[in-house]
Amino acid sequence: MRRRAVVAVRSAAAARSPASRARTASCRSRRSTIRSPCRAIQPQTAASGSSTRPYLGRPLDLPHRAAHPVLRQRYCLPAKVTKPLSARLGTMRRMALLHRAELRPTKLELLAAWLPGRPWFHGPAGADVVRVAGFRFDDPAGEVGIETMLVRAGDGPVHQVPLTYRGAPLDGADGWLVGTTHHSVLGPRWVYDACGDPVYAAALAAAILAGTGQAEEFFEVDGERRYREPSMTITSSAAGDVELPAAGAPRRVVHGDPTLIATDTVELAVVRRPGPDDGRAGATLAGTWPGQPTPLPLAYATPR
């Protein structure tokens, strides 16, 4: 009985039309592709200027992956990727995770001792330094804290002081050291004038030329992240769609107002005492803060 049934099934399959057999083969092919979409990808040439590269398991990097419907559905990719990664930095969420911690000495105490020795500082001697506003950049490696503070000493003008915070000394940067402090959560921290730190140079260039903007700030409290409203806002005059080269380490820094930072690929100017635009060339990073509703230039960038 079973043998007769098997023969009948085989006879029915053989009697099917060529079109029916083709549809069955197509369905099997689609099922195989869905089970393993990576096997269906062959190295393809992306848009003009891109190289031919095979699938490497990183679905967001290569434009040709977005052209494959299975991968596009699986990874929620757009139908077409037209911009390089550096030109899409402005659309990425950037975050700074902060700690409710105690610093000894505090950042303002460090600045009160350090600022009077700067050639660009204007303020009464011995006056207390107060924080006016500030913002942060994100270090993609997550190793360096990057904070720009606007401070005032006594009745003096507002000064812009970018700082970087590190868990170990930065080689060759002794001349940029503001001081050391003890962080109740992270331990010893080395505080630097950020104009001598390559991580700051890269972050500032990205903020001005690629429009990455400031990092969103969060505090972690009892295992939960809580958003902190920014005390100031920054904007860039650049279109944000340029191919951004790596900024590299500062090759030359000229102290003054502005402080000039030259790397292999970009020239940066950091305004120490923000005021009206003086017509300096280059893309501009401007900021507003309480008491200053009109944007003032904070920094300039010019690709080399």
UniProtKB/TrEMBL annotation:
Maltokinase N-terminal cap domain residues: 114-197
Molecular-function GO terms, alphabetical: ATP binding; kinase activity
Keyword annotations from UniProtKB, A to Z: ATP-binding, Kinase, Nucleotide-binding, Transferase
Listed Pfam families: Mak_N_cap
Superkingdom of origin: Bacteria
Keyword Nucleotide-binding: yes
InterPro entries: Mak_N_cap (IPR040999)
UniProt KW Cell cycle keyword: no
Name of this chain's protein: Maltokinase N-terminal cap domain-containing protein
Origin species: Micromonospora inositola
